[in-house]
Queue: 3 jobs
Job 1
Amino acid sequence: MTGGIAAYKSADLVRRLRDKGAVVRVVMTENAKQFITPLTLQAVSGNPVHDDLFDAKAEAAMGHIELARWADAVLIAPATADCIATLTRGEAGDLLTTLCLATRAKIAIAPAMNQAMWNHTKTQENIQALQSKGIFIFGPGEGSQACGEVGFGRMLEPTELADALSEIFSTGILAGKNVLVTAGPTREAIDDVRFITNASSGKMGYAMAEAAHEAGAIVTLISGPVEKQKPKAIHCIDVVSADEMLKAVMENITTCDIFISVAAVSDYRSKNPMSGKIPKQESSLTLELEYTTDIVKNVAALKSRPFVVGFAAQADQLVEKAKDKLHHKKLDMIIANQLSGFASDENEVTVLWNENQKSFTKMPKPKLARELIQLIAGVSHDSSQSS
């Protein structure tokens, strides 16, 4: 964020980005803090605000390098005329401009200024120079401005900026493909108020669905009960039990090119769920459990099957157990992670397919999902070419 009156929109922008699954860290210039407080941005982002190039608390006291490596994208919103000129010259006088020089992430700016400043020849030359360097320009919009004038120079609305930032990750590597993703836990009833479930948050499954959508796929997301907002432009089907998830999968599998089974489906359910509420007893209560249907194994067994990707959460012997599942269930690929990644915002995984293996270090789940989708797209394409 730089110092413009449009900074008041930036708090809402952070919320819109988080609604899309992004993990957001805010960098503010000194002038930006004249318009909105760091505390506000910390509250809406859920992360400390960065404003000091010489932050002793940062890793090795090099906050700009730490942020530069962490980011998938840098969006400067608002981007003032002064900021645009500084970026064009390649200066690094504060944390924000130093970060922009140090990062390999995609950079986008959302110009916000008086219409006369926007139309000035020098500003237009600067914009063209930044575009030639691969920097994305979002806006500006047209309308009335804080100074009372009317014209181009307004920062785009937060929803427009969030959508525009999402679009820069579109790769088209899954264009025309139908992808079916399962996410979250299932709930298996014990009685009308109690159930068996697990700690799955759905974060990884939702991230995979959104990454597949960004890659150009037509995505259907089948989700167990999670506290997450449904992603836009993705067909979502809500289910509760393993049987409901199985039914939804089988109803949609015939048109599917790639099936990604991320959901933590309950392995067991009560054999005889009871109506009403089981009364509390002084003695112990015994429940008889039975296996649920293994959804990913059943999909892999279909005569006409899609490319099948499974997930496996393990407490130990990660690779060995994942390899057993890969072969036993006849999957095309399996993605293994430790149990610690279950409800976390970050994950690290090892991917196995054929006789190949690739590990991904810990990173935010949306970023990891994009890496995994790129791998899945490549391997599934090679598989279809050879078959």
Note: The chain has two domains: 5-167, 178-386.
Job 2
Amino acid sequence: MTTLWILLALLALLLCRIPVAFALGGIGLSLLYVKGFSLAMVPLTLYGSMDNFVLLSVPLFLLMSNILLKGGVGKDLFTAVQSWVGHWPGGLGIATIISCAIFSAISGSSLATAATIGTVAISEMTARGYSRPFVLGLVAAGGTLGILIPPSIPMIVYGVITEESIVSLFLAGIGPGLLLAACFIIYCFLYGKFSSSYQPVAKATPAERGTATLKTIPTICIAGIVIGGIYAGWFTPTESAGIGFSLSLLLVTAMRRMSWGMLYVAVQESMVTTVTLFLIVAGAKLFGKAITLYRIPQEISLLITSNISEPAMFVFLICMVLLLMGFFLESMSMLLIMMPVIYPSLGGLGIDPIWFAVIFVIMIECALITPPVGLNLFVIQAVSQAPLGEVIRGVWPFILMLAGSIILLWFIPDLALYIPFKM
């Protein structure tokens, strides 16, 4: 009964539009006070939630993506990829997805990926006769690759919460990320093959390809250093974020695309996002501390393991809950609210926590493109100045593809586990 009242109180606060950080923190503080626990643990808990070397990578990855965004790197990337595949059926759509996948390997942010590639791709594709809902849905869905293909900010936070290896989490996201990118590409190809509305793009000359590709080599090298360095064990995720930020700043400065004003805006935007995220982390940490003292995670874990013996049913129910939560919560809040509660149940059901992280992040991807709180929908609406309903109409095929990828992961776990554990 206590668990039900806590969940109802949290839901009521969220429906009243209380910020997630203050809703979680307020309930946690209230629970500690009611039971007479020492409130001296509150500042210690809040400090402990921030005093984590791994979390330092979050603002650094955000800074890196914002600097690349302001420096117009996305346009160069899209132009280069388009020069190679733009003449294929649905070629501009394919170029959009490939560009999203490459930029994802640098930024770790879904919103930055959608905004960066969307700024260039939407106008190019609509000018070529692509259906506007298709274009908007494609870019919104392509942006979600930013939180699955490493480096991934949600994977970092998942690793902090569960104390799982962030390197393994990053590597586990590569296979499913490439699978989703391939599904999106096939969809674009079929759209181009059977649609008569769009105009094909002329094949680029070897000189055009060479010029466009040369401009992107430094960006691709940054992605290779960030991911390859982590995989090779040369540096930690936090160190790779610092190196990626430094290289990105050097790149846009050398290209003379970064002024002091632009750098100030990039730092300010990264700071706002970081503070928002860290406030949610602090509130969730206090909430998690309180419910742990109330033994709620243990009780829920016992309830699940006593009544649900099939891992498939457990994963299905969690996916349904996440789908519903995604209608009114943003992605990071879902992760911080759910994982402290359900993580203890994974071991009892024999579910690999690294594999489950990929499932969880894919469900977060769904939340990013499902109304009414799908943040990617609003990013694309802002970039394209299109009605929100038009964006929503375009994302449904991609939501079905995300759901299909979860089914594939259930039957073929090695899609996520092969790279981190068998290579």
Note: The CA atoms of residues 66 and 269 lie 8 Å apart.
Job 3
Amino acid sequence: MTNPLKQGSTIGILGGGQLGRMLAIAASKLGFKTHIYEPGKNPPASQVANKVTTAAYEDTNALIMFANEVDVITFEFENIPETALNTLETTREVLPARNALATSQDRITEKKFLEKLGLKVAPYANINTQTDLLSALATVGAPSIMKTRRFGYDGKGQVRLKEVDDGYTAWEELGKTPCVLEGLIDFRKEVSVIGARNQSGEVVCFDPGENIHKNGILHTTNVPADITSSQRMDAVLLTGKILNALDYVGVMGIELFVTAEELLINEIAPRVHNSGHWTQNGCVIDQFEQHIRAISGWHLGDGKRHSNVLMTNLIGAEVLEVDTLSKDTSIGIHLYGKEIVKPGRKMGHINKILANN
């Protein structure tokens, strides 16, 4: 696709969770329609989209019908089966392209890609067999974290090792599936950069945000991050390097560890990202509109921050405090429309304006 999408065009979104919901809202603001493809019934995005297809990613006929009804396809999560992409791409362009998905879906592939670019990651070792496990424990050691190579998120699919001997039970717990053992980094803080690249190769990055996690789930993102100007510049430059290397189109989240000496990349996410939610109240153009602009062939917004923001996820029963939160006029409230409150479930988030930039 080379020409900008016309008003009234339909954007297909794979996945109907909260990210798909906020993408659909952003698309609507720009005059586009949205069509959600989601296996689960009544997903959050269905409340704001023009159309929803409820079908499995293995349903070839449903995929073809979906692709024929949209003008471009994007996604809200990484773990889309390759077979589904094969079917969709025979009819319609999928953005970001599958090379970004293939890179991020496998932690080892991702780390090797980053190292090839001259970027630094934490010490790691691949684990496919019992012999690999022994070698990984000998080279990476403990404390460390064992993660499944695929399908992990929000603390799922990973086990922390306090001692080397914990590695054996950890691998059992993870089902003896292919894993990576990552050495723990003595980092001062974790930051993330939300970057965007459009079809013309234009790159725009938002300010780095400083992240705090609880129980493996992002709790807060504070912007601006408390880092030096040179660290901020390096974080933005390496984000651009990754986007260009992938010939990327869309928004990407880059998570980084800040140590005393350098920046290490934790992971990349080829989609809009939880740590970028602050942009909804801190910028004129937020990450969701930026993504829609990029995949639609538009120019990007500048992404400049006009306010300092503290984003806080509302997890589980925290969403029940909305009445109290709504009394604070400095808080922007974003709820996901999920009917069932569960422990550990992201129900929404708030953006508290701390000061003008």
Note: The chain has a mean pLDDT of 94.
